[in-house]
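agent> call fold_tool(seq_1)
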Amino acid sequence: MALLKIETLTCEYRSNPLGIDIKRPRISWKIQSDLRGTMQKAYQLQVTANDQDFTTTIWDTGVIQSDESIHIEYGGPELKTRTRYFYRVKIWDNFDRESPWSETAWWETGLLTSDWQAEWITPDPAGIDPLSEPAFLLRKEFSLKPGITSARIYGTGVGLYELYLNGDRVGDELFAPGWTSYHNRLQYQTYDVTGLLQDGSNAIGVMLADGWYKGNLVRENNRNIYGDRRAAFFQIHVTFDDGTEKTIVTDNTWKASTAPILFSEIYHGETYDARLEQAGWTSPNFNDQDWAGTIIQEMPITQLVAQENVPTHVTELLKPIDVFVTPAGDTVLDMGQNMVGRVRFTVSAPRGTQIVLKHAEVLDRDGNIYFGNLKFAKQKVEYITKGEGIETYAPHFTFQGFRYVKVEGYPGQENGLPLENFVGEVIHSDMERTGEFECSDPLVNRLQQNIVWGQRGNFLDVPTDCPQRSERLGWTADAQVFIPTALFNFHGGPFFTKWLRDLKADQLPDGNVPFVIPNVEGGKGSAAWGDAATIIPWTVYQTYGDKRVLAEQFDSMKAWVEYIRRQGKNEYLWNTGFHFGDWLALDAKENSFVGATARDFIATVFYAHSTRILRDAAEVLGRSEEVREYSFLLDKIIEQFNHEFVSPSGRLVSPTQTAHVIALMFDMVDGKAKERTAYELNQLLIQNDFHLNTGFVGTPYISLALSKGGYHETAVKLLMKDDFPSWLYQVKKGATTVWEHWDSIKQDGSFWSDQMNSFNHYAYGSIGNWMYKVVAGIDMDPAIPAYKKIKIEPKFAGISFTHAKAAYESMYGRILSSWHLTNEMVEIEVEIPANTTAEILLPKARLVDVLEGNKPLVSGDIHSYMETIEGVRLTVGSGSYHFRYRNESGLRPIFTEDTRIINFLDYKEAVAVIEKFAPGITKPPAIFSTKARSLKELAELQEANLTVEKVKAIMEEVSKLEWGAFLVN
């Protein structure tokens, strides 16, 4: 029997979300089908309120003729507060099949109206100094009658809180309520605590620490940025089987004390004295007679919003791989991976034993643990034992970025640490993993792992620049350059929706966008930094088809473009103000962080880019007047750019790699000027021995610009370089995350300046976007977002490995592109999810050679196919496909002395070159593009039309030349 079913129902990107406050939530689903080419033709969606059996519905769409299956907006009656809504879907497809109803899913509303009865409370200053360092404990006992049917806690706190009920921790979220623009927006959380309450006596407890709200941020001794009082705000709603309810809220009847946490800071770590624990403080019948009272506290909070981002969790446990003593005599744990989170340890020791953990990312060249790059962050955890048997501890309100942990004071450590007593807990926003990439080159695979680990470490409620030193801020440039890579690797819809709302909240009245979001740094907008206001919402829309995020952010996007427009005397150039420029580029002057590319050049390019995005967003939203206005503005910016920065002959005035990259990437030049720009970019790479010298502005786009400009093989050589500067240089130096600097660790083992040297900085991990889209070939038609129309177009010309595979879990389902090359055959596997179509390119294939599933191409499952100069192009519907064709006119491996590197080039072209440039050549052909390197005799050259003797003679001659070596990186 044919299979057609609905799976993976989500509401606002999430499965069964609890406590949302969106008035018109959107529903999405995926379709599973065993027939190729399945498309949805119609759907029916039903919603009930508190009725899982659907005996009555509050909204039934009826049969809607549509292929839409993502972001279907609820259109029923106004939602009620604190109510669970169940929904289900069925569809009809293009084979006249009707699916069964999906499994039932639900969402539950939080507090939609002014149902808040709680008060902000903090300890009474008469009993506890409100500015004291120890964390606060707040508690209240209450009694409940029998017949509890449901219970929810709604609440929040400032800075960070943990919630307890009857002795148990409520939920497993960490760092609640998250970091927002606190004066404008504060998230509250919803917890289902039905199973934690009991008839009779109950007790609730809250532990409060400084966190981002009032802790040390940005600069040393810079505290109380948002406020100087911790406070809690909670209420419990209990429903009984007789239909009655009871509400318990924070008020001045609560009691307060201080916690065993004597000190806890985001940057500095935590000090915990287990001797001060008060056993049972979150349980009923605890004696709190000596506790202080609480007072009502006025708080500068303007809006409470339901949890928007996915929560932060412990997502993985890492066991240390080694313990050793450094030359300096320190006992150090090696986690084997630069991670972000905390160490949990177990110990049995006499009362008052002090154990200290100090966290760092790397060892210096002498083998000693290196703390120099932490700036003033201490990353230190201290634990004082209570001496009552086995004790287990992990810090509550801090996180560290580290691979190595210096351990002091652990009992018996002079005889070696028991590794089984330590575990690393990896912490980040618990986003769904959606992307994967792997290939036949182990160094490139390690690079991909580094990219993913860097994202995990820096996506902790906000997209931070680094997780270890005294910074850890939401730098806008880092986020915008990395977002295409980020949204491939993990589902970032809720993550970036929340962060964009903070960007909009912190945007200045004149449209200026601060350097970091949430804004704790100040500073005025810089090109490529403030452009996060346009680039990120547009990328979220492109990835998920989310028009709502565009609508929400449109005024912010427009305000940013208009802010730029008002700068300087010429509204079509941005040549005034402060700019970071091509930050950390290697072509910077001595003692400068700013690359050589002219800052007004960069600023004007990004001005155009943001204007183009704004125009396109206006078109999506049907804002025709703005489409006309910003189309005109874009044309004028490009016209002025060419007048100001491009010579009449097409030469860019800024002769840097980055200038050429962004001019190409953002379509600032056209015609002959575009051809020249691409050619000169390629020449700049050749002249630099295929090494980049770009910074934060140029690096994210350099490989894309090369492939787009017709120099894909140069982009490949750039990736495969493993000496300084390159991505693989970091890998060969032992990196397990991406570095901030190309030479964070220099070739002699010394470090870049302590002033700014992160070993977990994801910006340069943006190369991942090119690996997934170009090398593996998964992309979309930009006019049809969310991968509704997929493009599979792998580029393996010049690639130095034999296979690559990428898979992506889109809003519609799994997309796969996998290719494998041998001397004889090319094999390409593709998976396309139901309710989508795809255009596939089989590079350098001929129709007569192509087999699909061991059969010749035939119409039917393959919608259309044609042979082009690039290869065979096909359009297909959903399903799995396996293409095979002869490599006769395609790509052949040539082995070099470095057996890890395998290069591919059109074989016939290679033969023609050799025939043309026989011994005695005096002029280098274009193919001879790198410095000479000794070659293995090409006896391994399979199916060669050349004799081995002739190859030897040619190679001997070529190896004498300074300018080149045949087919070698």
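agent> call fold_tool(seq_2)
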Amino acid sequence: MTRSSEIRPDLDEGIDRKVLAQLRSRFLALSQGRLLRANEGLSTRQQSVLALLPLFFHVNHPLLPGYVSGSTPAGVSHYEPDGQALAEAQRLTRSFSYKPRRGNAPQPIHGIFLMGSLGTLAQTDQSDMDVWICHDPYLSAEDVQELRKKCQALESWAASMGAEAHFFLVDPQRFVAGERDAQLSGEDCGTTQHFLLLDEFYRTAIWLAGRTPMWWLVPVYEETRYAEYTHTLLSKRFIRADEVLDLGNMSLIPPGEFIGAGLWQLFKGIESPYKSVLKLLLTEVYASEHPEVQCLSMRFKQAVFTCQADLDELDPYVMVYRRIEEYLLARGEPERLELVRRSLYLKVNKKLTGAARHRTTGWQRALLERLVSEWKWDERQLALLDSRSQWKVRQVASERRAVVGELNLSYRFLIQFARAHKAGTSINKRDLSVLGRRLYAAFERKAGKVEFLNPGIAPDLAEDTLTLAQLPNKREPGKYQWCLYNGNLSAYELETFAPIKRCRELLELLTWCHRNTVIDTSTHLALHPGISDLTEFELFNLQGALQQTIALPLGVVEEDVLLSPSVPREILLLVNVGVDPLRHHKDLNILMTTERTDSLSYAGVRENLVLTFDQITLNSWNEVLVNRFDGPYALLDCLTELLNGLEATATKPVIRVRSFCHNRAPAIAQRVEELIGTAQLLLARRLNHRYLIQVEQRYHVLEMMPGHISHVALEHLPALYAYLGEELSTYSPIHLDPQALDDSDLSLLIPYGHPECVQVFYRINEPHADLYVLDEHNSLWHQRVDYHDEPSLLVPLRRFFQSLMYRRVALLPLDNPPGSMSLETLYYRITPDGSGRARRVEHRPPPTVLIDNSFFDVQAIIEEASPGQVSVTLYCDGMEFSELEYGDQLFSVVARRILEQRREAQRYRCYITDLDLSGILGDTHGQTILFLRYKAQLEDSLNAAMDQM
């Protein structure tokens, strides 16, 4: 077209009504051209739907689809059905007869427009119809509700005709004011994208019936004074008000709209990146020009005004592409431009190679061929894109890098734009934060996380045949790795092929395959287990366990969830993967029969059958994590990490424990399940629990302090006694695993622990006796002493406790309630006597302390002499003996004094009956275990000195 065809209506020079009519005709002709293109891609029944829609909103007839009631608003401005529409209506309902509406009848439907990809380069058989129904702003709420019901009924009717239709009611006045239903946006990020939605409407909408947009008649150069210009048109009667509808103009676009649009497209791009890349880049183009944005709708209008209305060049998708192409070429970013081109080609989905090229050439194919020719793509590149439905891991992994790179680049652009233009409202900041976490969860690599390979790049990554093999790791001598290969390979062929994927551990590889659907139910998997004990039976069950725990496809994570730290949602614990815990018995041809079936202490040799753990976690952000535990502390390391994860969340995950190893798999899984169940119950009580577990001859304690769980490993029984005898700041109950310490007195007395109580246990095993004390904080004191009789064993201990309680009470302020510091002391006897297995604990009354001269007191005072050094003063029958006077001979002198005072010639043990530690403790009263420890040390020194005499 020549420049002489340009229309420039000018207010100052006068506006010709014919010129305005000519402008309207140009827009309508363009719209009609698009409608014809849309119908080319529709079936006969779908064409019928499109042709009948204006009639159904014009006539409210009970025989026609969409009828709701006699009061439903009907009547489309300036519409009269043509012969085609009436013929289609009579084919549906033969008894229908159209009667023209009276001239003064209301026409509350002002305009009907078709949105979406119909009539564009990207139209496909699956394209839906998005229809805007612009209605009279003064309709009552009841009338609008009637219209909404009619729209819903018409959607159902369209579906029965094979067409997917969506209707959106638009009140022009509310729309101009920025008020509209969120559903109008279809899939936008709420209601904040007013101008970008309007831009899309003006450049893509196909007019079906009713009034035409006022915006069509306003030249681009008059856009800044749109209100004045349109007022003049109406007030001077250049146009009639009932001929146009006004949805507003493309004035300054607020920067927040670019952020909202980018956020939403990035959100959609995580699952379907090719569909979002074009809109993401267009948003970036607009935002980069802010505030002088050259909207595509303005270019579209300018082309119509200058009579350059080429249907191909004004195709909505071609316009978007051209705009992005200008931008990226100017920036010198050819890689991003190539991704945009691939995205457009795949969006159009018209194959230009293979059998498809011999089909009848339609306008879409011709236009796409012209674009591809401009891009200078060769047959190889086209064939690769046309085979997208067959893309597998290698091609998808390569494409993923470009796609994820673009999404991350767009996210960083949005953040910088928000900062630069101070467009970060509280809503935008929240949305940006949520989106950042979505991108992180979907694409960020981190240790243990299974990479999500296919964010909508290819439809299916499943392979028909794969080979799974364990092979030596050449880079780490002595180490092995698991490799996955295409096809069914023999052991000799493995060296000559490159694996699709390699991992150190089997479950990491299997979980990767499952998360990315590389293996499905039809995949044949050949196995070369290497040095592992993996069997096909176990492999099959491992895959089943993964499918149960990580059910695909994963749902969309809600925003509220992303605003909180991720927490475990599903946990799968797999025990002894590829490991036979009794393999050495099989190698030695040993058949084991035993009554000791505990998986942590199996048979007479107390063998641990719980050797390795693979933990697969699906968290609240849909991240899949794999962690492996092996080595001597695998069980406790796994429990510690698992419980710390549970401690951090109020919502407890589903935990499954499975084992499919060759020997005792069900018993092993059940044993681990019991341990986890018990630990969870203890954790819920939040009482500083200590969970004592025995594995072989070792002892392990899970310390469950609120907010933190730790693991203490104790190599033997003496180490356990030492641990149990440590001072504690508060009462800490001990939960004993039922299978632990089954041959020790501790198994009977540990469950008796109780706060604010001192409990004495004794067991006679002549010529010795074992004394145990559980104090008020549940610390354990143990001492083996010579046994004479029960009074001589227990009375000195009771006298000691009486003295201790007396001192504590004496130090209390006068206003303390009586008994506030007194601790009840209970006595128990462990039976039977002797060194056999303890069976019972019997409560005994406290020993009677007689007031006579057969016993005399041995008191001790310990105080700090210098930093790190203490001095001891002993009082024997009232006489003082101090280290200041006797030095290292103190205990010998006191021992001699005691022997001199005794009436019997028989030697028996000497006991401390009173101990003062105020010189060390200061104002604190000290835990009973501390007094018992000093008492035992002093008694050992005295009795050792006595034995030398």
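agent> summarizing second result for user.
The CA atoms of residues 101 and 311 lie 35 Å apart. The chain has 29 helices and 27 strands.
agent> awaiting next instruction.
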